[in-house]
């Protein structure tokens, strides 16, 4: 083991321990985020913990690797919304980290290894067949991704040094206790004695939550009238039996949860698709489908995944929102105002990515050369009349100009004469989006996507920036695969899906005993239904989480205005009410204010989750090495 480091004054030393006992780390959550942390522990341990002994306890009621969300026992009809070549669990040189890069395959490369016999995994016949046919441009099933995550977990555990022993506990952690300066106790459901830990790491993913005030009112109304109300939840866990064939169902939400619902209620009930020679998709109902009336604030689905790969020079990002700008924002008193403090920088950064690509890859559609435009662009404020005038004078075609407001609110000011024309208009919108997102002539859109990833990587350093950014990012960057939107169009033409439009409002009708919904994009009474589905994940608030461990931390930990657990941006230690980092408790995931965009990521994207995993792993190993060096009590004492 390397020489002992100076013991930090903030981490108190306990009394001496009997020799021969190993310290203990309890990791709560063995899904993708926990697996990524195990990978980083394995990568950093040879240098930071060489020769040391450690008991690593992994606590999760679901199989490690996939966890609950990516478990294998869900419908094979459910897909990932990222191309197989854009999914990896491994760091690369782009990731800002102190630990070593340990190369590993992307999902597409792993599947190729399965096909070629270079890699081995216990796959059922259907999943093995999918793996053999997968390409980098495929959208894998979640069951195949579950197999990949399980393989990464097993490989990471095998890479741990001999002195680190892994103990798996297929139970739920329900409480953590212990003094700030001493060992912690993690209580497991159905187990009398707790696990005793020198460090505790929470790597929990998306969790269920208690309903908010509106959801409680709607649920109570449904219960007293014998209606069906499905609250925000992971769609694969939803009980869809109350959504009856042929009957209207109001669906509020047009993101990825809606597409899961759409799949399970159509193909999942025996419907099928055919494609003719011209590429038109037609849906053939089974007769068991309900009629889905879908609406949301925007009134349109998330933007399609881009259907081509990058070629040529990448925009040099970050440019206007990088580490320097983040450091300038940090000391500002009080919470940051998204529109005042962040949006101008985001707008300028995404505009830079867009125009860099347009001017360098499609110069025939511009009026000046890139260096001249870049110089003038850099000197002007985002959203200013001067900047709009510059763009108008240098980019002749309005379709080549970036308008984030128009992208974010495509139905603002649009009014259709009736419900049928609304259906036609929404289908035209989706068709136009599909055509553009699969046409390399519009490659500035892909540059904006790269800009979104860059911005996300910077904003995560600021902690909780509110829901506005996450919603905008998901709408533009985390949309469905193109084939899903083509299926949506087919379902619309078949009358299985009906669009409600923007600013959809849901009401209860006590007289008729039904739900009612209507949007603002067309006149008319809207739709009445005996079923309402909230097609979204619950907000990751700690205060309303149904996870007892998180709820237990609410009273003693710092929580942001959005209800997120506050953590140290450096190493993810949980902050107390007094703002001090807890020396023995860490947290990662969507319930924290350092939430990253995903536990796995696109290769060569400096993924925030990978940065966080590496920093936490190194902090944990350094702390545990300090215990071993100084002979302080371990979990087994």
UniProtKB/TrEMBL annotation:
Transmembrane segments: none
Listed InterPro entries: HpyO/CreE_NAD-binding, L-asp_N-monooxygenase_NS-form
Domain FAD-dependent urate hydroxylase HpyO/Asp monooxygenase CreE-like FAD/NAD(P)-binding positions: 26-206
Pfam families linked: NAD_binding_9
Domain of life (superkingdom): Bacteria
PANTHER family associated with the record: BLR0577 PROTEIN (PTHR40254)
Protein name (database record): Putative NAD(P)/FAD-binding protein YdhS
Native source species: Streptomyces netropsis
